[in-house]
Each structure stands twice: as structure tokens, then as C-alpha cells.
């Protein structure tokens, strides 16, 4: 009888030999001796990379123009998302009309502030555009002086920004100074805030007077003040604002004044502008347009003189060879007719050996 310890040790080296045959690892498949020991080689198991499902192709952004054609070669970072639920739709015509109105507003405000400060106040619009509320807040200084206002009978909350240096210069001028500001920016004191509020009241009142007969309905009301635009939540970030940036010079200081008005506040005004524009276009006479087929139409041209009036019996006595006396003034009163319609007066004479008429004036018809 053999020793039991030999029986236990004998099968141990066989175990690692069977394992690669069952799993058919690449090492076992590459060994020719191992492949000849079995009756048939086991099929190779695919790797994890081969069994993984194919990756879906990357989604590409397709951009179409307004005529339906596909735009190619547009960088993805140039595509900005747009919220179609936003009601702010300002056309270039609307923006141009509002720009003209606010240009007149800047002129009137400059005259009003010059009287109020008792010194020359210069206002110049440096930018007038439509912008989202988020970008408007980003463009504001920090720190700065912001005034939030509402207008009766209109929706939305507007904002007026007065730079710190400009606010300090305004307060210094109202306190009897020359309109100077300290070298370093500092918050406005309570007294300075009260003085600047008086200036803002003039700014908002002049703005409300832009709309003519609706002035009594459009009364501005200050509802709050802030020192930074980072935390403003008076409008959704993607809402449309009309922003006007004005360069202001008061005394020895030049600063910036910014007015932001939401589209919801200006919407009734824009509708009124549309009605006025449509009415003026209807009452305005239509301009005459030239058409190409007219070029080939023949128009008879006659030059005539009015000699004198004769009785009928005198006309019957006219014979060939008779003479009619013409005054000198009649030469300068030659009448030019276009298709039997008297259009011009002229002077008859000779030009380059030919009889010609020089047109002097047009016949005024009622």
C-alpha cells in the first residue's frame, strides 16, 4: 500500500493545468503542447472590449438658416440658447425709434440738470441697446448706487445706476462745492444719499415726460436702493431690458449713468409708437415709382406764345401773309406743353444755329 501523503500530493500539479484548458486563456492557446493534450481546443472567450456594446455616435448640432438651408462650419460655442417663452421681442425699427426718443431725453435732461446744479452739465449717450437682465447686472459697477423704480400703470421694475464718483461729485456740488470727488471710492452717507435722490427724481420725472399725453399716468416711484447688481432679483435673468449708458460731466468729474428699463414696461409705449407710425404712413402721400415700360412712351412737346385775344369775326378775316406784332415780353413767356399740359415757362432764342427755348420756371398748379 502506498503512502497516503503521496496520493494527496499527486493531483495538485494537475489542477493548474486543467484551469487554463477550461478557461482557454491566451497563454494556454499560444502553447502548442497544451493544445495537443486535449482532444479539442475550447473556443476563445471574447474580451471585455469586444463584448462591450458599440458607442453611439456623438451628437452634432445642426443649425438651419431662416430660409431652411443648413449652416455648416458653425462653432458650437457661438450658439447661444434662447428662451422663446420670453415676451421681449424688440425689432431694429423699435430700437431705433426708442433711441431717437431717448436722445431727445438726454438733451432735455442736460438742460434741467444744468439749472439744478447751477453749472454746465454735459450728457452724451455712449450706448443704447437691448440686453438681458443678467448681462445688465454684470455690466454694473461694484460698489455703485442703484435705484429701483416702478411706474404707475406699467409693469416691471426699472433700475438707474449712478457711479460712486459721479454721486459724490453731485453731492459735493449741491453742498456748495465745485463738484469734486475723493480719490478713493467710499459709500455715500445718509445726507449724500438724500441729495442724490433729488437728482434721481429729476432723472425719472424727465423720463416719464417722454411719452407726451400719457405723462399723468406715468408717475415714477422709487421702491428701493442697492449698492451692487449681483444680488438683484427684480426680473428673470433672461428677460429683455432696454439699456442706455450716458457719459455725464458735472463740474470737474466725469462719470457714468445707466438706465435699464424692462420690455414689459415699454411694451404699451411701443404699441403706441406702432399706431402713430402706421397713421403717419397712411396719411403720407405715396412716392411716385418709375416703371421701365414707361420709357418707350412718346410724349408730344410744344412751345407756344399767347399773342392776344381776338373776336370771332377777326379770326375769319385772317389770311396767309398777315402779320402779328409781338411784344418783347412775350419771348420770355414762352409756354412749354407736355402732352397738352402746360408745365413750364421759358425764353425763346437761338442756340448753336437752332431755335431753342430755355426753361425758366415751372407752372404752379393748384
Q: What would you note in describing this structure?
A:
Among the domains are: 92-282, CheC-like (Chemotaxis protein chec); 299-362, Surface presentation of antigens (SPOA). The protein is built from 11 helices and 12 strands. A hairpin with a 5-residue loop joins strand 1 and strand 2. The strands form 3 sheets. Strands 3-7-8-5-4-6 form a 6-stranded antiparallel sheet. Strands 9-10-11-12 form a 4-stranded antiparallel sheet, with no helix packed on it. With 366 residues, it is of the alpha+beta class. Mean pLDDT is 78; it is low at 1-39. The protein is elongated.
Q: What are the key terms here?
A:
11 helices, alpha+beta, disordered N terminus, Chemotaxis protein chec, 4-stranded antiparallel beta sheet, 366 residues
Q: Which architecture of the domain at 92-282 per CATH?
A: 3-Layer(aba) Sandwich
End-to-end C-alpha gap: 147 Å
| Biggest sheet details | 6 strands, antiparallel
So, the CATH homologous superfamily of the domain at 92-282?
CheC-like
Class by helix and strand content? alpha+beta
Q: Give the strand line-up of the largest sheet.
A: 3-7-8-5-4-6
**SSE pattern:** HHHHHEEHEHEEHHEEEHEHEEE
Roughly what percent helix? 25-40%
Number of strands: 12
Count of individual helical segments: 11
The radius of gyration over CA amounts to: 45 Å
In percent terms, what proportion of residues is strand? 15-25%
CATH fold title of the domain at 92-282: Chemotaxis protein chec
CATH class of the domain at 92-282: Alpha Beta
Amino acid at each position: 500500500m502506498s503512502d497516503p501523503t503521496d496520493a494527496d500530493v499527486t493531483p495538485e500539479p494537475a489542477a493548474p493545468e486543467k484551469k487554463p484548458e477550461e478557461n482557454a486563456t491566451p497563454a494556454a492557446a499560444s502553447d502548442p503542447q497544451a493544445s495537443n493534450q486535449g482532444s479539442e481546443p475550447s473556443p476563445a472567450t471574447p474580451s471585455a472590449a469586444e463584448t462591450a456594446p458599440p458607442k453611439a455616435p456623438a451628437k452634432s448640432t445642426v443649425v438651419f438658416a431662416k430660409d431652411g438651408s443648413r449652416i455648416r462650419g458653425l462653432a458650437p460655442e457661438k450658439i447661444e440658447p434662447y428662451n422663446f417663452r420670453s415676451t421681449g421681442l424688440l425689432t431694429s425699427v423699435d430700437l431705433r425709434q426708442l433711441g431717437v426718443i431717448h436722445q431727445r431725453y438726454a438733451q432735455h435732461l442736460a438742460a434741467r440738470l444744468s439749472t439744478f446744479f447751477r453749472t454746465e452739465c454735459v450728457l452724451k449717450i455712449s450706448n443704447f441697446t437691448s440686453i438681458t437682465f443678467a448681462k445688465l447686472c454684470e455690466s454694473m459697477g461694484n460698489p455703485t448706487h442703484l435705484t429701483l423704480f416702478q411706474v404707475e400703470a406699467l409693469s416691471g421694475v426699472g433700475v438707474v445706476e449712478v457711479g460712486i464718483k459721479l454721486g459724490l461729485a453731485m453731492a459735493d456740488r449741491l453742498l456748495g462745492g465745485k463738484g469734486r470727488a475723493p480719490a478713493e471710492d467710499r459709500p455715500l452717507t445718509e445726507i449724500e444719499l438724500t441729495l442724490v435722490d433729488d437728482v434721481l427724481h429729476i432723472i425719472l420725472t424727465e423720463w416719464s415726460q417722454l411719452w407726451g399725453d400719457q405723462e399723468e399716468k406715468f408717475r415714477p416711484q422709487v421702491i428701493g436702493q442697492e449698492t451692487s447688481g449681483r444680488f438683484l432679483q427684480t426680473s428673470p435673468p433672461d428677460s429683455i431690458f432696454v439699456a442706455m449708458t450716458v457719459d455725464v460731466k458735472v463740474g470737474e468729474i466725469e462719470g457714468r449713468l445707466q438706465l435699464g428699463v424692462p420690455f414689459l414696461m415699454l411694451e404699451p409705449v411701443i404699441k403706441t409708437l406702432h399706431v402713430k407710425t402706421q397713421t403717419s404712413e397712411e396719411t403720407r402721400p405715396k412716392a411716385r415709382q418709375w416703371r421701365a415700360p414707361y420709357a418707350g412712351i412718346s410724349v408730344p412737346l410744344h412751345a407756344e406764345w399767347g399773342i392776344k385775344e381776338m373776336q370771332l369775326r377777326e379770326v375769319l378775316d385772317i389770311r396767309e401773309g398777315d402779320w402779328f406784332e409781338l411784344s418783347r415780353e412775350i419771348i420770355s413767356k414762352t409756354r412749354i406743353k407736355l402732352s397738352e399740359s402746360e408745365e413750364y415757362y421759358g425764353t425763346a432764342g437761338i442756340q448753336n444755329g437752332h431755335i431753342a427755348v430755355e426753361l425758366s420756371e415751372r407752372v404752379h398748379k393748384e
